[in-house]
Amino acid sequence: MDKKAVILLSGGLDSATVLALARSQGYECYALAVSYGQRHVAELAAAQRVADALGAARLQTMHVNLDAVGGSALTDRNIAVPETEAAAGGIPVTYVPARNTLFLSLALGWAEVLGAQDLFIGVNAVDYSGYPDCRPEFIRAFEALAQVATKAGVEGRGFRVHAPLLTMTKADIIREGVRLDVDYALTVSCYQADEQGRACGRCDSCRLRRAGFADAGVADPTPYR
């Protein structure tokens, strides 16, 4: 197989679906997980489970200390993860400054070394549009950056940034994953999952996940504590 892609794999529902989609499109998938100081570190073990189950050629875990930057409930233990529904129109406190920019930069560097021209990321602008780095504008801007920031891009071997879930609802994502035989019991989405990966059932991510399964008419396999 000569069609390689780097897939950002958090271990959550969305990124697992993206890995399955990329595989179904004939890509040899190189999965990239990032340990960035997140409080829900159980997602890293989930990423390994998902990569194994979906036949990734390799899982690489890279390390970035975004907890040193702070400013997010996901990296700063002094900021509580909200357990009430986020107000519409604002940027949630669970936004991690520059996270997707850094993640895609790491994926871009690895892709260039692998000889891959395709990057996949599971951002979604429908169910959760509060994050500025989950918008179509961001994806387009990063793809343009990739063409001028790399040796491969300058030499004419450009990159494509795929965000196949961008305009899908959570229910549609789940239906697609079920079609592709994704085992969602392996995934962790909760912002404050415990060491065993059990979900709180109260944070925004848990609410979106639970509602998505309900709307899709699929049994929710999430272990809640």
UniProtKB/TrEMBL annotation:
Binding site for Zn(2+): C190, C200, C203, C206
Record text on cofactor binding: Binds 1 zinc ion per subunit.
Pfam families reported in the protein's UniProt record: QueC
UniProt protein name: 7-cyano-7-deazaguanine synthase
Function per UniProt: Catalyzes the ATP-dependent conversion of 7-carboxy-7-deazaguanine (CDG) to 7-cyano-7-deazaguanine (preQ(0)).
Species this chain originates from: Solimonas terrae
Pathway, per record: Purine metabolism; 7-cyano-7-deazaguanine biosynthesis
Organism classification: Bacteria, Pseudomonadati, Pseudomonadota, Gammaproteobacteria, Nevskiales
Catalytic activity: 7-carboxy-7-carbaguanine + NH4(+) + 2 ATP = 7-cyano-7-carbaguanine + 2 AMP + 2 diphosphate + 2 H(+)
HAMAP family reported in the protein's UniProt record: QueC
Protein family: Belongs to the QueC family.
Keyword Endoplasmic reticulum attributed: no
GO biological process: tRNA queuosine(34) biosynthetic process
InterPro entries named in the record: QueC, Rossmann-like_a/b/a_fold
Top-level EC class as recorded in UniProt: ligase
Binding site for ATP: L9, S10, G11, G12, L13, D14, S15, A16, T17, V18, L19
Keywords: ATP-binding, Ligase, Metal-binding, Nucleotide-binding, Queuosine biosynthesis, Zinc
Cofactors that this protein relies on: Zn(2+)
Keyword ATP-binding tagged: yes
